[in-house]
Structure formats: structure tokens, C-alpha cells
Amino acid sequence: PEPKSDAQPTEPPMRPTNDVLFRKIIVTPFDIALFPFIKQSFSSSFDFCKDSEKRNPSENLGQVLFGERISSSPYKENKSIKWASRWDYILDSMSHTNIQWLSIMNSFVIILFLSGMVAIIILRTLHRDIIRYNEMSSSEDAQEDFGWKLLHGDVFRPPRNRMLLSVFLGQGTQVLIMTFITLLLACLGFLSPSNRGALMTCAVVLWVLLGTPAGYVSARMYKTLKGVKWKTNFLLTALLCPGVVFADLFFMNVILWVEGSSAAISFGTLIGILAMWCGISVPLTFVGAYFGAKKKQFRVPVCTNQIPRHIPRQSFFTKPPFGIMIGGILPFGCVFIQLFLILNSIWSHQMYFMFGFLFLVFIILLITCSEAAVLLCYFYLCAEDYHWWWRAFFTSSFTAVYLLIYTVHYFFAKLQITGTASAILYFGYTMVMVLIFFLFTGTVGFFSCFWFIIKIYSVVKVD
Question: Is 412 within a domain?
């Protein structure tokens, strides 16, 4: 129609019908490739013919936590595509496979570097020190001791805040086992990407069932650190970190309820999660804490002196902040490409199904955290600083700080989120991911250093 002049009154535009909306859609080759995934949303928005006999599939816990709602598609399946090849067309259309191999090669280079450094320390420097210390027989020679052997009377002195450290180690063990089993099942094909939320459901169920290892490790390590309040230790292990996660989810949902967002978790689902936590996880944690408290403490090869040894003045490179920041860079360098792809999968609606790469990178991450923590722990001991407990934990867990910085960069550089509710949702789930990363990486680094120190002091003759 001809445009009207400014003097003539205009009627308010009518709301376009579905036909008008269809004519305004621009279809790209990328949309055609992803048509099986977007047709479901179109079917709920437009007047397609629905199959009255087909029922909607049930939703799992992971889909509910992510705020997803599913409905049956009005289209028929393509019977010519084999079930084992259903993801091949996505793999062929994505360039992530080459990037994955480059990431794996980069991670292997980092592992070879750290392994070479650890091998030099253990096979040459440390072996030479042990031989020299054991050959000293006279008292005059004993006065010439230096380095890490001088700390045999203080290296196992309990640190400050031993209660909190043991709680972190128990929760880190629980998260580590949960993550390993979940990724292993996904790598073996038991958690199909077509079942949205299956990965989250498996992780939550495993976390609930793994309360016993958390209580056992926490109680036994607390007993090793000369702690006596094992009931308080049990309560903190069962309630501290899970309580932080639950409070984070509840706060997010309060905001989403106020905003009227469809991503909000229903109140009944929150009550169900709370019931699983208090009714299953807490009793299992108590069982583990009971047996851990009854078990003997971890055996250490040397006794602890009554008077603490004076720590000499440390240089800038042997002070805790420098070593902790350096120790977190290499593990983060192994996982940042996988982190980018995972964030794209969660927030940019891209498919992620290469769990074999993810599981391999997870193993590489564990090895890198262990070697970096052991390497820096040896440098601390050579500088005659025996406060290694918390440093061993923070050296590898500082990777979570770099993860947090990267997620903030991803939010401002890659996403276009302006709503308050969406921003709260992003940073709420990010803080849960950072906390999980902090716990299991710190646990891996700590127990690697703990085993390393027990080994080196068990082969040295101490009067």
C-alpha cells in the first residue's frame, strides 16, 4: 500500500500472524544443519499438527535444574541414519575437532615439562641429598645439615585452621570421585547428549551417594592433624560446602521467581534436593566420619618437636603468593580450551558431545596439578619453610581463580546479556563450578605433596 501522509491518522499495526512471521524468517545453512534441534521450539510456537496419541517425555533432574522444558516433536524420525552415527553430521560441520587435538598436544607438552622437572628433582637432586644425609655418621657432619632434612622435626607440625583444611579435603575427595565417574560414564557412551540434563542428573546422584568417602577422609585427616572435635568436623563436612551450593541455588531462584523467568527451579524440586541432601548424603557422611575417627591416623615417618623451628627470611620467589600464582597457571593452560567449549555449550546453545577429549583433559589436569604442587613444595622445603599444608592445597586450587577470571571475561566479551536475572543466573552457576573446581584440584595437590613428603622423610636416617 501507498504510504500515508503525516496529517492522516494511522491505525495501530496489527499483530503479525504465524504466516507473516514465517515469511520474515531468514534461513541460513547453519539453521538447516541445526533444524532437528530448533524444530522443537518452532512446534511449540506455531500451529503445527500435533500427534494426539504421543505423550510428552518425562523430564530428569538435570533438565529441571537448568530450567529446560521438553515436548514431543510433530515430525517423524529419519530411519535411514544408524543410531551409532547420529552425531556424525554435527562433528563434520564443526571445526572443534582440530582445536581439540591441538589442546591435547599443548597439554601433553606441559605434562612433559613438569614430569621432566620432577624427574630431575627425584632422580638426581633428591637422590643425591638422601645418599649424602645417610652417609653422615659423626656429630660434626650432622651439624652441616641444610635444606629440607633440617625440617624433619617440624614438617608434620599441624597447621592453623586444621578443621577447615580437613573439611575441604573431605569435600574435595567427594567431588573428585563424582567428577571422575561421571566423565567416565559419559566417555563410555552411557550419558547420551540427546538426553539433555542426564550429565547433571548423574553428577547430583553420585554426589549424594558419595558422602561416605567425604566423611572418612575428613575425619581421618583431622585425626592425623591432632584434632579432637570429630563431631564438629562431621557437621562441617556434611553441611558447609553443600550448604553454600544450596544457598546459591536458592538465592538465584528467588531472583528468577521475582522476574518470572522460566529457568527458575520449582519449590518442590528444591525441597526434593534438600531431602536428598539431609536424608541420604548427611547420614552417609556420618557413617564415613565414624569409621574415619575410629581408624588410626595416617602414619608419618618422623616425630614432631615440641618447640617450632625458626623459619629463615624468605626471598620473593619462595614466598607463598608467588608460588601459588605460578602453580595455578599450568593446570589452567591445560583446560582453558575445553572450558571455552563447555561455556559455549551451556550459554550459547552449542552441542557438546566429545566427552572422550574431556575425560583425557581431566586426567591431564590431575597429573599437572600433582606435579606442580610437588615441585613447588620441594622448593619450599629447600628454603627451610615447613608451612606446606595450606600451600600445597592452594597451589593447585588457585586454578579456580584463573577459571573465575576467564568466566568473567567470557561474560563481557562473548555474551550479550543485559537482564539482571540472566546475569545472576550466569554468575550463580559460575560460582558453583568454581567452588567444585577449587575443591577437587586443591585435594589432588595436597595429597600429592602429602605422599611425597612421607616418602622422602621415610628414607632418611633421623637420630
Answer: yes
